[in-house]
Amino acid sequence: MEDSRKEISASDRCPSVKRVESIARQPVAAGSRTEMQVLLGPDDGAPNFNLRRFIMGEGGGMPLHRNQVEHEQYVLCGRARVGIGDEVHEVAADQVLYIPAGVPHHYEVLEAPFEFLCIVPQAVDRIEILEKRDENGGKPTGRPD
């Protein structure tokens, strides 16, 4: 895996302070009723990690998938059923999750909006969808992608 991060010297690093409302929300193609904001990343001088915010609406979520990088997450509000590997957890505000690289996981919103912060390393990542969701963004269909 090639490291695509650009080298930033200590003298080039500047603090970054901005309002979350000023950061564009991007739809998450693999999800349903799901948007993401990159709150901090290489464009802000952060050399090692991306801090992202996910916002999932009523009936939203992410199908069963896996990534090549680990995820550390902090739930801000709402409730969701989150499958990680063979276990399913109901999570809510002020809970934290660790999803190791390569472990299949999925999200199903129980109480919207479901919002969480997600920290990932700045490394090459690829999402692999393992199970499709029904046409309305609901529960997994059991069909492989």
What can you tell me about this protein's structure?
This protein is mainly beta and 145 residues long. The chain has a domain at 35-129: Jelly Rolls (Sandwich), CATH 2.60.120. The chain contains no helices and eight strands. Strands 1, 2, 3, 4, 5, 6, 7 and 8 form an eight-stranded antiparallel sheet that branches. It is globular. The chain starts with 25 loop residues before the first strand and ends in a 16-residue tail after the last strand. Residues 141-145 have low confidence and may be disordered.
Name a few traits of the molecule:
single chain, 145 residues, mainly beta, Jelly Rolls, 0% helix, 50% strand, disordered C terminus
What is the CATH class of the domain at 35-129?
A: Mainly Beta
Radius of gyration: 16 Å
| CATH topology (fold) name of the domain at 35-129 | Jelly Rolls
Shape: globular
* Number of contiguous helices: 0
Q: What's the rounded overall pLDDT mean?
A: 89
CATH H level, superfamily name of the domain at 35-129: Jelly Rolls
Beta strand count: 8
Category by helix and strand content: mainly beta
What is the H/E string?
A: EEEEEEEE
- Strand-residue proportion: over 45%
Distance between the termini: 25 Å
Please summarize the sheet with the most strands: 8 strands, antiparallel
Provide a compact summary of the structure:
With 145 residues, this protein is mainly beta.
